[in-house]
Amino acid sequence: MELPKAYSPKEVEDKIYKLWEESGFFSPEGLSSVASAKEDRFTSRKFVAAIAPPNITGELHIGHALENTLEDIVIRMRRMQGYKTLWLPGTDHAGIAAQNKVEKQLAKEGLTRHKIGREKFLERMWEWREKYGNIILDQFKKLGLSVDWTRTQFTMNPGYQKAVETAFKKYQEKGWIYRGERVISWCPRCATSISDLEVNHVPEKGRLYFIKYGPFVLATTRPETKLGDTALAVHPSDERYKKYIGQEIEIDSVDNTLPAEQPPQIKKISLKVVDDISVDKEFGTGIIKVTPAHDLTDYEISLRHNLPLVKIIDERGKMNENAGIRYQGLKVAQAREQIAKDLETLGLIEKIEDYDHNVGHCDRCDSVIEPLPSKQWFLKMEELAKLAIEALGNGEVVVHSEKWGQDMKNWLTNVRDWNISRQLWWGHKIPIDGEEDVLDTWFSSALWPFAAMGWPEKTKDLTEYYPTDFITSDRGIRYLWQARMIFSGKFFTGSAPFKDIYIHATVLTKNGKRMSKSLGTGIDPLAVIEKYGADALRFGLAYQTTELQDMRFGEDTIIMGKKFANKFWNIARYVLMKLGDDYEITGTRPLGSEIISKMDSAAESVTKNIEKYKFGEAAHELYDFIWHEFADKYIEETKDKDDQETKNALAYLLLTCLKLLHPFMPFITEEVYSKLPIKDKGLLIVEKWPS
Questions:
Q1: Which of 26, 238, 254, 672 is 20 to 30 A away from residue 48, measured at CA?
Q2: Taking every annotated instance into account, which residue ranges of this chain make up the domain Methionyl/Valyl/Leucyl/Isoleucyl-tRNA synthetase anticodon-binding (predicted)?
Q3: Domain end among 470, 504, 538
């Protein structure tokens, strides 16, 4: 059978994906039907993974493409090795992000959620989810992901909601849930607390104000918080300030009781000097003002030294009554400008310097975060953290990077109690009477590997397919998600939720910048697929995957992937032409040939590298063997040959390369396989992996 002269991804990909879906081979039940004359396959060994559920607000980006391509490579190889594979898909309700989307829609209509009320607002949320919530899953199909769509989950499905409620109550029974006032990260725009881990620290150009505090000069980027100072702090070993430790120091400040219309005047206040190891001796002048209500580090200092909290910024990001009538009602940025002006007038500013520093922004809406005291629900972490540390320490969970494994243990060792409440309407309502808050989205996501299989019910899936074997993500959610899944799995099921964690690279632009649609640096994988084909994108991403933490994405390797696909297509055309119409491929390994030995060596190396999650090395090995050993050398040697031995070698090489390349480039390999002269042929997706 002859192949067309050129490979056209657009004519092949949708057709092939439909074949896979209709075959049922994405599900373990479908695999159970596969048998050969000599052996039953897919009957005992299992390999299970759960997709990192994308937000229902999401669209495919390069990070998704990389992460899920790598996971699909593992899944496809394991399936061909005879494992009964299950790759579980689903989406996350994405509390803050999804609520923001609908609130923006309402704003265009001149409405707010408060105007229409909670019930109507939640109706709008569900309407939005039904319309847009599965877009990214459809986009995953364009990438060729072999997930079991029949098991698609959503973190707000009734069964999943039951899992979340059960988890909360079990924590409550242990006495680990409590309500208390703490300084937390607050988003004035979203009007909710957010996790410290969801604060993006963005480099910004600011100003460093050197302010006179009695005998000292202090450097700060936030002079407006001076009104909430309750102490000064120095490092215990800083000889410059040792004699002041424990003393009350009288300083000049601004009289905030005077209206803004009047000229500023000095007011005397007293502040105690404390010593604390968190003070950086090298920052500014080595002495800091302590504003416990509006800085997380200062709050920790206040706990150690029993200092009071004075809240001067409210939940709208404005100065409150404690800031005095002079500044009350001003937005933070306005208050900073006004108080700096007042301090300068009073001669209390020594100098002001330009200063580059990181400013916390909300991960969802990009507003500047305000640390402030708030009454929230917390989950005690001490015992849960121990469960995860133990699993990481004894090898029950293996992080495939010693650096990230140790990093995760360090975080768990020093973890604070988890603020699990959010002041949102969309999400899992906290199951306590009269409580209007919802749970942090990551609370429900932490249950994903077992809740998605039906826990707390003892379902067939939970019995057969939990715990899972493999999970991957970038480093950004190793605490938010992976560490929390480990202790959740251990606590609720007695087993860690997965065996292997692979932390993949973070994808940056070619110039090393963060990818962002809003910054104009984002790249749409669907546009890349449209231009070059899904196989080219998949192979190019895998080819670039190394042990490095970051990957600079450029189209060069995707173009290379496209050329490689075309090269492989031409190899297949040549082999089929050489075999002729009467040849039947049996898959039998020819004996006594150098190229066959090289093929065996390459197959062994590719297999080991995928099993060790060394995707780049496996891709390089395939590329080098197929292009150089097979095409450049062996095919050139066979151009004047037409004997049976040569045909057998060509057939074996093509079939073996198809199998090895399939996890990386599933579409073109399945299409070529469909043209091979093989008796009783099925689909390549369930062909036997080379051994």
A1: 672
A2: 594-690
A3: 504
Residue 408 in domain: yes
Which domain range does residue 613 map to?
554-686
643 burial level (CB within 10 Å; 0-12, 13-18, 19+): exposed
- Residue 111 near residue 169 (C-beta atoms within 8 A): no
Task: Judge if 637 and 677 occupy the same domain.
Answer: yes
Q: For residue 518, is it within any domain?
A: no
The dihedrals phi and psi of 73, each to the nearest 5 degrees, come to -60, -45
pLDDT in tens, 380-392: 999 999 999 999 9
The encoded tokens of residue 650 equal: 């060509």
Token digits of residue 186: 């607050």
Provide, rounded to the nearest whole percent, the portion of the chain with pLDDT above 90. 83
pLDDT score, position 35: 58
Interatomic CA distance for residues 258 and 679, integer angstroms: 93
Count of C-beta atoms within a 10 Å radius of residue 678: 16
* Upstream peptide bond of 456 is cis (omega within 30 degrees of 0): yes
Q: Is residue 29 part of a domain?
A: no
Which of these, 440, 441, 505, lies nearest to 472 by C-alpha position?
505
pTM above 0.85, yes or no: yes
- DSSP letters, 64-123, are HHHHHHHHHHHHHHHHHTT-EEEEE-EEB--HHHHHHHHHHHHHHTT--HHHHHHHHHHH
Q: Tens digits of per-residue pLDDT, 493-533?
A: 999 999 999 999 888 888 887 776 656 667 889 999 999 99
- pLDDT of res. 284: 87
Question: In CATH, what number is assigned to the domain containing residue 166?
Answer: 3.40.50.620
CA atoms within 13 A on the CB side of 84: 18
Beta bridge partners of 143: none
Distance CA 211, CA 352 (A): 9
| Number of domains observed in the structure of the chain | 3
Do 198 and 166 lie in one domain? The reply is: no
Are 92 and 50 spatial neighbours (Cβ–Cβ below 8 Å)? no
Same domain, 103 and 143: yes
Both structure tokens of 274? 């404390």
Q: How far is CA 198 from CA 32, 95, 684, in A?
A: 42, 13, 42
- The pLDDT of residue 147 is above 90: yes
Q: How confident is the model at residue 198 (pLDDT cuts 50, 70, 90)?
A: confident
Domain membership of residue 546 (yes or no) is no
Judgement on whether residues 356 and 213 belong to the same structural domain of the protein: yes
